[in-house]
Automatic annotation (TrEMBL):
This is GTP 3',8-cyclase. The lineage of its organism: Bacteria, Bacillati, Bacillota, Clostridia, Halanaerobiales. [4Fe-4S] cluster 2 binds at C256, C259, C273. One of its GO terms (molecular function) is 4 iron, 4 sulfur cluster binding. GTP binds at R16, R66, T97, K158, R261, L262, R263. It comes from Halanaerobacter jeridensis. Its EC number is 4.1.99.22.
Length: 325
């Protein structure tokens, strides 16, 4: 199979797919308390349409798939989709980003269908603070979801932590300790603006350099052999920990030069860059067949910018829940 590359020489082999805009939490940095207006079911791609799009992408060189939402597991029948994608020639890896709440019910079936790895979003290890951040009381369910992921053999299990000044920056070392005790890989992520929340971004942003500084006061960041993944995180080990800690600094030191991905929204929009409002509609191409879809992929890759224009003074108008983050 030939490599699929853009005009800047970046190999594009990774497709993130939002399969729903709905979520069973209301995280403050992701969506408003009242949620967002739900897209009607007839506007959302069917599983068959998603598989058709992935098959076209695989012909060009897409090898890795990540299912996102909203919360992907609120949509019924996700193991069926995983099974369909796992049967597509050229697809080498299927992963998921989830809040973990529904993993106990579906984890084993997802693994059987072909899901290999999972990222679980968890921004605090304190139950009351979890309620404040997410506006829900399902902290224990998330912990059970993490346990389930480890038990059913999803590997690696990564914990995504969005670091927010004045909210969870006092828990950075607690998350480091989590990587010592369990075979999980904690990733500290810089708070990114979304949904027209510039003021909150200015108040809550904490750069990765500061996060490292906090850790280094207590721990030594050591090299690690753990480097598996398709994303921008870079990893270290602390002592004889079972897991690792990673850092994603989209704001302070963006990783665009290594970007290998496209995004597909739940409504069938192909997005060349997360931090751009530019999208390519696949609805007509779906009606026309695989070659038309492949042409849209080629167009999307051709429109990938050299880098995003996002910084801690930029407003990003789209809610993360609507494009899969």
């Amino acid at each position: 199979m030939t490599e699929f590359s853009d005009q800047y020489g970046r190999i594009i082999d990774y497709l993130r797919i939002s399969i729903t805009d709905r979520c069973n939490l209301r995280c403050r940095y992701c969506m408003p308390a009242e949620g967002v207006e739900n897209i009607s079911h007839d506007e959302i791609l069917s599983y068959e349409e998603i598989a058709e799009i992935v098959a076209a992408g695989a012909d060009l060189g897409i090898k890795k798939i990540r299912l996102t939402g909203g919360e992907p597991l609120v949509r019924k029948g996700v193991p069926d989709l995983v099974r369909m994608l796992n049967q597509i020639a050229g697809i080498e890896e299927i992963a998921m980003t989830t809040n973990g709440i529904l993993l106990p019910q579906s984890g084993a079936e997802l693994v059987k269908a072909g899901l290999e790895r999972v990222n679980i979003s968890l921004d605090t290890l304190q139950e009351e603070k979890f309620k404040k951040i997410t506006r829900f009381e399902q902290y224990q369910e998330v912990l059970t979801g993490i346990e389930t992921a480890l038990e059913v053999g999803l590997a690696p299990v990564k914990i995504n932590v969005v670091v927010m000044k004045g909210i969870n920056d006092d828990e950075i070392l607690d998350f480091v300790n989590l990587s010592k005790k369990y075979n999980v890989h904690v990733r500290f992520i810089e708070f990114m603006p979304s949904g027209n929340k510039k003021l909150e971004q200015e108040k809550r942003y904490l750069g990765i350099d500061k996060v490292k500084e906090i850790i280094k006061k207590e721990e030594q960041l050591l090299p690690t052999e753990f480097n598996t993944g398709n994303g921008p995180a870079y990893y270290y080990q602390v002592g004889d920990s079972l897991g690792s800690i990673g850092f994603i600094n989209a704001i302070s030191n963006h990783f665009c030069s290594d970007c290998n991905r496209l995004r597909l929204t739940a409504t069938g929009q192909l997005r060349p860059c997360l931090f751009s409002e530019e999208e390519i509609d696949l609805s007509e191409a779906l009606a026309e067949g695989k070659e038309a879809i492949k042409n849209k992929f080629i167009a999307a890759v051709g429109q990938k910018p050299v880098g995003h224009s996002l910084n801690n003074e930029t407003e990003f108008l789209t809610n993360m829940s609507q494009i899969g983050g």
